[in-house]
Amino acid sequence: MDADKARRMHALVTQLTEALMTAAICAQEIQVAVRTEIADAELGHSRNGMVPRPSDSMERPLLDESTLSVIWKGKTLRLGNTLTFRLLERLARCPNQYVTHLDLLRDVWEDELLSIASIRSLVRELRRKLSNGGLTELAAAIRGLNGHYVLSL
Q1: Which one, of 89, 74, 70, lies nearest residue 129 by Cα?
Q2: Distance of CA 4 to the CA centre of its chain
Q3: ∠ CA 87-78-60 to the nearest 5 degrees?
Q4: Looking at the domain that runs over 57-153, which CATH code has it been given?
Q5: Cα-based torsion angle of the residue sequence 131, 135, 141, 145 in order, rounded to the nearest 10 degrees
């Protein structure tokens, strides 16, 4: 396979991955809504008179590759075609699982030889953009520990 075909295949796989991730997030949200409706219909309400609702911490950010935006808890922020979008996309792909700096270099920077300081700098930039865009809780959910990073939801 030549380099052009390989790049095209990589782009298609990336698009497919994003579409599948979006579909999985939508399916999860529909499942939670249906469970809530079933509980409401069968049980009426809980002891305290409130229908149990899913925790906000279960909500995952939705990354829209067509607009290069993140949608979370009803807010939308356009990150643009930047490394910050790719970094958030990589962390959101496996929330609550640590990702090594080597995986980030491979997936976000496409194997460029960079220092760990470059990753730290980009994480700070992503947190800053998210906070300035009104997604402070999402910014705080990005954590690092000894060269590993996680999106804790």
Answers
A1: 70
A2: 29
A3: 60
A4: 1.10.10.10
A5: -30
Contact 74, 53 (CB under 8 A): no
Average pLDDT over residues 8-33: 72
Mean pLDDT of the chain: 81
> Phi then psi for 98, rounded to 5 degrees?
-70, 140
Residue 87 identity: L
Which element (helix H / strand E) includes 134? none
Closest to 59 (Cα-Cα) out of 37, 26, 88: 26
Q: Which residues of 19-43 are buried (b: 16+ CB within 10 A; e: fewer)?
A: eebeeebeeeeeeeeeeeeeeeeee
Residue ranges matching CATH 1.10.10.10 in the chain: 57-153
In the structure, what pLDDT confidence band is assigned to residue 127 with cuts at 50, 70 and 90? very high
The token duo for 84 is: 């910050």
Identity of the residue numbered 75: K
pLDDT digits (tens, 9 = 90+) for 105-114: 888 888 677 7
**Predicted TM-score of the model (pTM):** 0.62
